[in-house]
Design the sequence.
């Protein structure tokens, strides 16, 4: 690598270094602040008297005899049954990832191997679908779903999320399959495989890197969704994100905000772990479309 | 691949998209042409020995029956599109004739709810997209300049604002700018105005939402630019150096042209994403000061009585907006395709 060609003069690298440091602070500080504050009582986290109370927690100390308390977590998880929302989120996320990857790999493979014009038009239609805000579709779901008694159930939300996720999945996987040489499955066809056998025995064994990357983004879409889950699920079937929104919506009773703060930390923690383990795949997935052109 | 095989492979995804994307669009368009039924009113004559009085009451049973029989409502054509909370045709016509100059016209136009939502959405898109790309670019330059060992952790940290659930990321910021939160306290201290509340003013709410937007979308630009910087053609750079090109000319003629296509791609994605801005408005509880088109639909749908027709009309207008935004891409691909 031509390191020499890109070496910066000291002044510039100092400026960039300082900017970077500032950005890293801005990117992490809110999370650190909220994590720390989630173990305090509301009077400390939102302190009218002195902002340092959020760090030292005098009211928490007075109330519970320690500067840290788990009452926010206890209240959210046990009293407000956040565990149920967690379970729902788990079911929705896993189902969405599995189903949309199954549909997406089949469809993406077909698009990547088709030489006809309609494959192009289908991809273009998918691009338009991808650009539409999901809430515009939600207003189309409500009336039919009420009429046919589909509203409020987890499977409904799962299928809606799968469908909304398909355009993106198709784009990612089509690009990925195009990089797998055609010779591979064509030679399998020569040897007498049916198209499905060729897919099963030749493509499936080599497709996992692309599928994992795409799956990460499907996971994020399902896990982070608010629009679909908030509008289409009944109160009992709520997933985590709408549940947090409902903590805020109800009348502001003492401590309710702390339930929201502690659930926010609970929802964010798995995402941190995810980024930690799959950082490389996330970066490569984000850049797949752009850098290759 | 043969048509039949293609269909077999493509059928599941096509069914999913047809049922839950294409049909709902049809459903939205249809719904937007119907308005809810009026209540059925009956006239009842009450006679007392002295006189008879007529009074009107609502026939609950008949109203219910009518709503059951025709759940879509009554057909009103384009009325909903033209009413006051959407395109407001009458109001605009009146504004044209009455308003004193273009400034006054704009100010009064923005009092109409749909145009206010449109204005916020477009402002958000137009400010957040370039600023987040710029910030991402500088972060990428910074990360590119630090030792290789530190880059992994720096990338990890930089990804967080983008990966975290939008509703939650916005909530975290919202709690910090609360007048009792850390940023809110700092602002009060800086401005020496004890009554400063970021939530109470429209301008400050807009700024807050835009800051959140930049914070949460800069990582995407960073990742793309960082990857782009790794693939800058080194040979070209070195030959430029040998030919005596200055640092600036190397950046101007080698690095920037390499990054330009990435910028176009990224701007396109970000424009699409920022056009649908929604969650931060829910988190910031900012519906009173700033509504985006998505939030406008959400507010109609989540009220006490769900205003399906109104939401449907806004949805159709939003989809049209998306098509307008995408039209350069669509036209370009169509032209390229025509040539091929």
Sequence:
């Amino acid at each position: 690598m031509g390191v020499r060609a890109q070496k910066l003069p000291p002044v510039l690298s100092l400026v960039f270094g300082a900017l970077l440091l500032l950005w890293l602070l801005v990117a992490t500080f809110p999370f650190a602040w909220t994590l720390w504050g989630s173990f305090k009582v509301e009077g400390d986290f939102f302190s009218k008297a002195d902002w340092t109370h959020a760090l030292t927690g005098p009211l928490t100390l007075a109330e519970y005899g320690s500067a840290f308390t788990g009452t926010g977590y206890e209240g959210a998880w046990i009293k407000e049954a956040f565990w149920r929302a967690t379970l729902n989120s788990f079911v929705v996320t896993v189902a969405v990832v599995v189903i949309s990857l199954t549909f997406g790999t089949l469809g993406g493979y077909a698009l990547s191997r088709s030489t006809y014009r309609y494959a192009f038009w289908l991809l273009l239609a998918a691009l338009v679908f991808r650009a539409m805000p999901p809430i515009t579709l939600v207003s189309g779901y409500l009336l039919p779903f009420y009429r046919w008694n589909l509203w409020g159930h987890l499977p409904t939300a799962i299928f809606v999320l799968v469908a909304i996720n398909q355009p993106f999945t198709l784009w990612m996987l089509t690009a990925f399959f195009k990089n797998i040489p055609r010779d591979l499955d064509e030679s399998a066809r020569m040897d007498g495989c049916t198209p499905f056998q060729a897919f099963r025995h030749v493509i499936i064994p080599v497709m996992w890197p692309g599928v994992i990357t795409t799956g990460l983004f499907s996971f994020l879409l399902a896990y982070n969704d608010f629009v679909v889950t908030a509008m289409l699920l009944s109160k009992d079937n709520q997933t985590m994100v709408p549940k947090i929104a409902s903590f805020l919506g109800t009348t502001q009773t003492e401590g309710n905000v702390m339930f929201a703060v502690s659930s926010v930390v609970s929802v964010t923690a798995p995402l941190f772990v995810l980024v930690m383990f799959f950082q490389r795949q996330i970066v490569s997935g984000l850049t797949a479309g752009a850098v290759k052109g | 691949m043969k048509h039949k095989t293609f269909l077999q492979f493509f059928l599941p995804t096509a069914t999913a998209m047809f049922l839950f994307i294409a049909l709902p669009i049809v459903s939205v368009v249809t719904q937007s042409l119907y308005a809810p039924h009026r209540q059925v009113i009956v006239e009842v004559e009450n006679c007392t020995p002295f006189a008879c009085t007529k009074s009107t009451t609502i026939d609950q049973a008949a109203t219910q029956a009518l709503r059951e029989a025709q759940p879509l409502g009554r057909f009103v054509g384009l009325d909903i599109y033209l009413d006051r909370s959407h395109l407001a045709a009458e109001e605009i016509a009146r504004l044209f004739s009455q308003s004193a100059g273009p400034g006054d016209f704009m100010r009064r136009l923005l009092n109409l709810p749909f145009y206010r939502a449109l204005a916020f959405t477009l402002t958000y898109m137009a400010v957040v997209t370039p600023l987040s790309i710029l910030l991402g670019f500088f972060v990428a330059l910074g990360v590119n300049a630090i030792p290789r060992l530190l880059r992994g952790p720096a990338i990890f940290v930089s990804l967080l604002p983008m990966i975290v659930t939008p509703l939650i990321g916005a909530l975290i910021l919202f709690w910090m700018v609360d007048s009792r939160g850390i940023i809110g306290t700092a602002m009060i201290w800086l401005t020496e105005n004890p009554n400063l509340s970021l939530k109470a003013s429209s301008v400050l709410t807009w700024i807050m939402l835009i800051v959140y937007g930049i914070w949460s979308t800069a990582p995407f630009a960073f990742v793309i630019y960082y990857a782009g910087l790794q693939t800058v053609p080194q040979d070209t750079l070195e030959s430029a150096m040998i030919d005596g090109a200055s640092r600036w000319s190397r950046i101007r003629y080698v690095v920037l042209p390499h990054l330009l296509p990435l910028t176009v791609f990224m701007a396109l994605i970000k424009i699409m994403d920022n056009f649908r801005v929604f969650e931060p408005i829910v988190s910031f509880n900012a519906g009173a000061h700033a509504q985006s088109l998505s939030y406008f639909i959400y507010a109609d749908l989540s009220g006490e009585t769900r205003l399906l027709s109104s939401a449907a009309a806004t949805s159709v207008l939003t989809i049209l907006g998306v098509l307008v935004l995408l039209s350069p891409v669509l036209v370009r691909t169509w032209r390229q395709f025509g040539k091929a």
Remarks:
- The mean pLDDT of chain A is 87.
- The radius of gyration of chain A is 24 Å.
- Chain A is about 80% helix and 0% strand.
